[in-house]
Amino acid sequence: MKRMLTALMGALPLLAAAQPLDFLHWWTSGSEAQTLAELRQTARAAGVPWQESPVAGAVNANTLLKTRFLSGHPPALAQIDKAVAVWGEAVPLADLSEVAQGWRQVLPPVIAAELQYQGRTVAVPINVHRLNTLWCNLALLQRHGLEVPRTWEAFFAAGDRLKAAGVIPLAIGGSVGQKFSVFADVVLGQGGPQFFRRALVHGDAALLAGPEMLQMLRDFKRVKAYTDAGQAGRDWSVATALVIQGRAAMQLTGDWANGEFLKAGRVAGRDYDCTPAPGHGALHYFEFDRILFFKPASAQQADDQQRLAAALMQPADSTRFARVKGGIPVRVDADLAGFNACARRSHQDFRAGSADGSLTLALGAQLPEATHGAYRDVISAFWASDKMTAEQAQQRLLRASRVID
After folding, report:
1. What superfamily does domain 133-285+361-400 belong to in CATH?
2. N or C end of the chain: which has fewer CB within 10 A?
3. Mind listing the pLDDT tens digit for each residue in 86-104?
């Protein structure tokens, strides 16, 4: 991506001055729409002109973002799911350093670092999302005499019981990201954070080609037997709705699902459970929502960006975004009043992981875009194929680790 954009950025026409801050994003579910309403309110209260460009799905949004830069009509802001360097190496970014003074004192170090490009603050964090959560419909599990599975073997045993009873054990959607998230859960749950980093982040060939990874791939593919045929084209929020409605028992996804349960009026601990994925214990695998600010088209737009960045980081606003969307606040001084048991557990485990070094950042934020994409392609193909063996997938995964941008 960066080569194509870098080559063509020089040909872009000058952007028009005085225009609203156009925010490109993929927040299109019910709870995400509520978060957008809060962002909109914050922008307007700060006197910042605001408009939105929604796109369904992160992949589609990233594609449109590239297209808009190449056509000379970039947005002022965009939701991103990759390291800021991926964009910073390709297109001009804003400099929020002046307004960001003091942010390091109120943000976890791992998050503060991810907002930087070449020594400048270029993005604003919105909230932290735990990725490794097993969401369960408690009434459905109890009806079948089951407890929330804490290990993969317990998960498979529960899946067999539910499947025999005509219940979808695991709700999942059609995107590559949802399958890749399950793969990450298996590797983290069976190998732990150090194995995960050495194998997938650092591309340790011995681990990628070893017997542990082979078994992880087999168990990942085994999960598919507990999903349903209707997953093709299904959005993650539709999969969450299956759990809420009692049509499926479980879902492995991020804690944005918490926002959907809350919107449906469900109570954590009574109607649903939000345990870390099997084998994870208190391990916190996370990403965080952030808004990247691109180089302003005028002095007025630069001023609008600065005012918006300052407003988004105000304690009350930052906390409100997280409560609505289902994650936890980015600020270490956040007041957790009004957050449910799922968010409080996530917050506790996030702080513990920060202290003991087990906190694990999402692969997409640690890997070059090409490597991450190659991994996802292998896992997606392995999930979809009835013929590819775990051994073949393992060899492809090893080759994917050598792909660089």
Report:
1. Periplasmic binding protein-like II (3.40.190.10)
2. C
3. 899 889 999 999 999 999 9
